[in-house]
Each structure stands twice: as C-alpha cells, then as structure tokens.
Amino acid sequence: MHNIYPQHNHQHCIDEALLRARDLCQQHQLKFTTIRELVLTTVWSSHKPIGAYTILEKLAKEGLRRPAPPTVYRALDFLLDNGLIHRIASLNAFVGCNEPGHAHQGHFLICRHCQVALELDTQLIYPAISAAAKQQNFSVDTASLEVVGCCARCSETVSND
Amino acid sequence: MHNIYPQHNHQHCIDEALLRARDLCQQHQLKFTTIRELVLTTVWSSHKPIGAYTILEKLAKEGLRRPAPPTVYRALDFLLDNGLIHRIASLNAFVGCNEPGHAHQGHFLICRHCQVALELDTQLIYPAISAAAKQQNFSVDTASLEVVGCCARCSETVSND
DNA sequence: GCACCAATGCAATATTATAACATTATATTC
DNA sequence: GAATATAATGTTATAATATTGCATTGGTGC
C-alpha cells in the first residue's frame, strides 16, 4: 500500500500514474489523447475523489478553453473502461486507480474528514464477496465497496464528528 | 435469507415490511405518516431498487396529488435514517431493508438482467471489511457493498450479456 | 486525394437532488 | 379551548450530475 498522506511526494504518484497509463494504452493500442491525459492528471491531482464538474473547472483555469461536460465525461468513461480510474458512486466522484486492469473492482476506505480515499488491496475483501456470491449462485461482474469513516491521521487530530 | 424470486408471495414481504416499520416507529416514538408509509410501500413494491422520481410517478398514478420532489426525498431520508430502506448509490435508487437497525450497512448482489437486489447478511462480509479497516487504523461509520452480476435464475435463462 | 472511423466540439436537455420559505398539522402547556 | 412550540408537509425555484444527438475535426489506410 502506498503512503498517500500529506508528507508523501505526490508528484511521484502523478508521474507513476501517467507512466502506467501510457504503457497500458501503448500495449492495447489505445489513444492516450491530450484531453484524456489532462483529465487523468486532474483526477490524480490528489487522493480525494473529484467530481466531473470540478475537473471541468480545473481544466478551464489551466488556460484550456472550458470543455463542455461531454468532453470530460467521455474522457472519464475512457479512463473507467480501461481501469485507470474508479468512480466512487456515493460521492459522484472519481479517483485514480493504482493497478490498472482491475476495472471491475474498487474497494475504498473514505475519510469523511480529509476526504482521502484509500484503495484497498482487492485480496482483502474479495474472497468474502466471492464466497457470498457463490452461496447464491450469483456470478460477479463488478464489486464496489465504499467504506466511510475516519482515517488514522484524522482520528488523532479530530475531536469528534 | 428470504426467497425473493418471482414465485414468492410478495404481498407477504410488503406486509412484513410495514409491520416492522410500524413497530420501529412506535418503539422510537417516530411518526409513520401517510406519505412515509406510501413511499415505503412503493419502495417495497418489488425487490428492484427504485428511483425517487419513479416513486413520485407511481404515487401520482395512485390517485395521490403528484407530490413534489422534496416530499418524496424527505420521506426517503426518514426511511434511510431509520434503516427502513437502503440507497443503492450506483443506481441512484432505493430498496427496502430486511432488518431495520442496520442503517449503516448494506451489502447487495444486484442482477443486471432482472435488476433484483439481494441483500446479504452483513456477517458474511463485514468481518473482512472490519479487519482491513483495522489494519489501516480506520474507524468505520458505514460500509456499502454493491456487487453487480447475474443472479442464479437469470443465469439459467439468459444466453449471454 | 478519398473514404472511413474514432475522437472531439457543441447545444440542448434529461435526471437526480436540494435550498428557501410558506403553510399545515400535531403536541404541549397553560 | 386558546396559545405556543415543534415537526411535517407544500411550493417554487434551482443546483448538481449526466446524457443525447448531431456537427466537425483529425488521423489511417487505400
């Protein structure tokens, strides 16, 4: 698990994400276009899930001509389809994925104080999900887990909720 | 686990849900008003998660003067707060809860063919979630799991997806 | 060049949810 | 029962999120 808290070198996270994205697109002959790269970079600007319209505004502020919603949503769809980001349904927001290729799984601990979404290793939870599904003869396509609470760091500094 | 597939006597589900709701409201001195009962009944009209605006239309068709969105959303909020229903974030929809009192947990198997949402016993998955959270010193408030796939019944009848 | 297909631009609109404030109903106290 | 307080609902408007449909651009292969 990467360290994702304030002290970490976040530029490293961004760089790695872009690297992984370029690799993946090259390998699968996908086009990592300008807008897709910009949106991915914006999603990776922190470990907090970010909304589509917030992305849109950030791009507008970066000198880009303000993109229309479909432009952003299409880039997000591309990134989702290829497992480069996850959608956090309970927040209507998007967050970078550490391990492209697991598009169908996203298990997150989301802090209600600092908003950071920590992605869990699928192996921690998936066996239980798989077993429960099997019990019902249910075949799993996707499984998203969104755990909301208070992270370790915030527990130290926050008195109460 | 209740049987929730076509052959079951669904009126029984509705009746039980209403009974539980009345009990719970009485015990906690909450008001189970007309609109709340109507919304709960509508949510329970099937085991498929239903959207707020669909509820609104159903109520309108049942002779009720078409309620405004806030009316429906307030009733839904009341039902959510008291654990009588769950919200399925990935569908923007609501579904009845079998065991009021577990408002903070909702683990579902959702069939992409028949849309039925089967609520899992929390005990099947929660231990794994709890352990993963503990590993991160993360304190859990709510945990929602939405597994999408194909249910046993549809697997038999559906060729492919 | 030309035909094709994917990607993007653009305008309009659909869908989901909430804010703000007025009104009504219910309960409590006197 | 009137006076008050509180909770619930009604009403209007609007915010926030997401998609549709169609025009345009841009690269790819022939």
* Gyration radius from CA atoms of chain A, angstroms: 17 Å
Helices and strands of chain A, in N-to-C order?
A: HHHHEEEEHEH
Low-confidence stretches of chain A: none
**Strand-residue proportion of chain A:** 15-25%
First and last CA, distance of chain A: 27 Å
Report the count of strand segments of chain A: 5
In order across it, which strands form the biggest sheet of chain A? 4-3-5
Described by strand count, sense and barrel closure, the largest sheet of chain A is: 3 strands, mixed
Oligomeric state of this protein:
homodimer
Number of distinct helices of chain A? 6
Structural class of chain A: alpha+beta
Average pLDDT of chain A: 92
Largest protein-protein interface: A-B, 37 and 37 residues
Helicity range of chain A? 40-55%
Approximate shape of chain A: globular
